[in-house]
Write a structure and sequence with these properties.
Helices cover 26% and strands 29% of the residues. With 160 residues, it is an alpha/beta fold. The chain has one domain: P-loop containing nucleotide triphosphate hydrolases (Rossmann fold), CATH 3.40.50. The chain has a 6-stranded mixed β-sheet. The longest helix has 12 residues. It is globular and about 40 Å long.
């Protein structure tokens, strides 16, 4: 079995904890609870006849990623950078944040994820994605579960 440490990061309120809970526990709550520090849990996926144990770290949201303790990133294999599709402020600093994360995890896999897809129609989604400065790997809805499992499968596949 292969183990991989994954970091969920992004601004506060973008749905990192909701993605975490949907992936690990298949649950969603409308109650907003700010993450203090870090939450860690694991889930095992079967990818191409390999068992991959994903150790997922849900870290507290920050507007600027350089305020997150760098020690959280030690030993990480991948980063899931989450932004809120309905809040432009959460993706306006995307290039700066991703550049910083690439310095912290050179050679690591970084997935850029637009969350809260369920709040938009297709036309609105396409318009917003046209304003994001970097390619978005996947759009998700932690509320409905859409593409959540796929996000982690894609990441795990890329890591093995």
């Amino acid at each position: 079995m292969t183990s991989k440490k994954i970091i969920l990061t992004g601004s506060f309120g973008v749905g990192k904890t909701s993605l975490f809970n949907q992936f690990i526990f298949s649950k969603f709550s409308d109650k907003y609870l700010t993450t203090i520090g870090v939450k860690v849990n694991k889930k095992t996926l079967n990818i191409r006849e390999h068992q991959v144990n994903l150790l997922v770290w849900d870290i507290a949201g920050e507007v600027s990623q350089d305020k997150v303790p760098t020690s959280y990133f030690l030993g990480a294999s991948g980063i899931i950078y989450v932004f809120d599709l309905t809040r432009p402020l959460t993706y306006k600093g995307l290039v700066t944040d991703i550049d910083y994360l690439k310095q912290l995890l050179p050679g690591g896999v970084i997935k850029i994820v637009g969350n809260k897809k369920d709040l938009l129609n297709e036309s609105e989604l396409n318009e917003i994605l046209g304003h994001v400065d970097l390619p978005v790997n996947i759009t998700t809805s932690a509320k409905t579960g859409e593409n959540v499992e796929q996000l982690f499968i894609d990441l795990a596949t890329e890591l093995i």
